[in-house]
Amino acid sequence: MPGYKIISKINNGVFTTHGLLVSLEGIDGCGKTTQVALLQARLEQNQIPFIAVREPGGTAVGEGIRQVLLQSSYSLTAEAELLLYMAARAELSRQVIIPALLKGRLVLCDRFTDSTLAYQGYGAGMDLQWIKQLNRKATAGRLPDLTFLLNLSAEAAAARRGNPPDRMEKKDLRYHRRVQRGYLEIARYEPERVAVLDAAIDAEALGDEIWHRLCKHLEKESQ
Ligand code: TMP
Fold this sequence. Notes:
Elements: E1 6-10, E2 13-17, E3 20-25, H1 32-45, E4 50-54, H2 60-70, H3 78-102, E5 106-110, H4 113-123, H5 128-138, E6 146-151, H6 154-160, H7 173-189, E7 194-198, H8 203-222
Parallel strand pairs: 3-5, 3-6, 4-5, 6-7
Antiparallel strand pairs: 1-2
Helix pairs in contact: 1-8, 2-3, 3-5, 4-5, 4-7
Bound molecules: thymidine-5'-phosphate.
Thymidine-5'-phosphate binds next to helix 4.
């Protein structure tokens, strides 16, 4: 990666980093959307150049694929579902994420590669190695630098979700429990990258925790 920098003043200190790819992950209802909004506000306040994207989506084709994937009246084979998530990711990575990283931006992803491992892999039982290979192809190998996993039980998350459920939310509680356990497995294998955070706590306090951890990462990069 070229030597670009993000420079921002936080707490009177100057923080620098190379383009940074940050993802937020968790099961449906974990409060991820709220946390993405809080983090965006903080990045803006501190004048850190960033872009925020969501998966599936973030490009014209990706948003079209999202509608197909989440349309509750459709039924999809596990293979088609997996490949559609990957197609949306290939578009987003190559058209939006990688160009932004090359300009030194911080990229904030509302879901990314771990979602497919957790949902299609641990949740639906698709081959984990195949998913990892596809993730590498779809992203041109540019995987997240830092991931915040909002950890909440499947039961608590289901109680928080609004109605009507989309095609993924309609899957039963056992599926969502497998996804939840899958996320924890991913974090266990990559503790340096994946920070597991208690999503049952107050949203503002969780936002502070995420911000604090992100700042540390920026500081570390500047040394
Ligand atoms: P969300 O935008 O509300 O998080 O909805 C996206 C849904 O798609 C959510 O149920 C998780 C699911 N999903 C997968 O199953 N695999 C993936 O790779 C991604 C990105 C999302």
